[in-house]
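Fold this sequence, please.
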Amino acid sequence: MKAHFYVVCLGVFAVMALSNAIVPVLPAFASGPAWEGAIYAAYFLGAFLSTLPGGILSDRYGKMRIIIAGLTLTVISGGLLFFTTMPTPVIVLRFVEGIGAGFFIAAGMSYINSRPDHTRMSGYYLAMLNLGLVIGLIASGWLAVLFVRPSLGIGVFTILSLAALIIALCIRDTSPEDAPETICCKGFEFRNIIDLIVSKNRLWYSAIILVGITGVVTSLYPSFSGVPADILGLWIACMSVATIISVLIASRFSFPPIPAIQWSAVFMIGGVLLAYVSPLGFIILGALAGIVMVAQMSVLSCEQDRQGCIMGLFSTSSYLGMTILPFVSGIIANEVGFFPAFLITAILGGTVAILFSNKFKNGPPQGP
């Protein structure tokens, strides 16, 4: 139903905007790159732990039920975060917010990828996701400077998330796109997850590294650049703007997904190093990330009988990268400097290109 699609798009916009609302004002909640990295990563740790269960539950009980559960956790954690400034409670609330986002993202992506027109719809969905990231950055930075209230952006996007939740509660009904999938309802087994992890291990690794790279530069820049929150928000927003453009373009064309992932990893090496000397690196990384996500979702769309589980694993991999890489890079930057943190991140991008290159030695692959 179109109503469900609109709720998914509005919800992903609000959830992503709220997740990024804290980024331009991280120094107001913690001192030093290590604490800032912990606050940033806590959200993705929660999402990492909840996306796979969210995907499995969406297969068993229906996608809209899990979307509503995710929005509920988002609203509660965002409301409490608005009134909190101490680093430890902020980390806990960001973790809870991440759990809510993980439920929503897994169920939302499962809904999109189960549609017959999933390639075109994935472009719209990913565009709204990244538009939320852009608006969250720009608006929260601008509001923080204008009203001298770092958490004001958090409050605004919590209200928007509440609006999405109310609409979802009003339109929820039984539809083919919301119906539970039979494969998981009739006895989902743990070995199914293991089989999926093993059979598509290179794709999961590419999601961890290539998505995690965007989190590294985003989390390092508040301390690395030292610019005001409103300017910083605009810089980082350029990454998501580039992603919006690239996903809308890439979703309109048919291209070999595996080579697209491989070559995107190669160019991401240069994007990371460019980001060390210029904010223009954000544009390169954002555009490449959009191509990568469309290519990865295209590969995974063939698993129509277990989209909840597949999208749960995909989101888990992405959030694992956004959890580990920013946290580790923050520690590296704190101990030995920012350049080693950027350099190691670039090298990790190269490992994806090498792994996908090795896969071609015995002929064209049938899957990742």
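The first helix runs from residue 2 to 20. The two ends are 32 Å apart (CA to CA).
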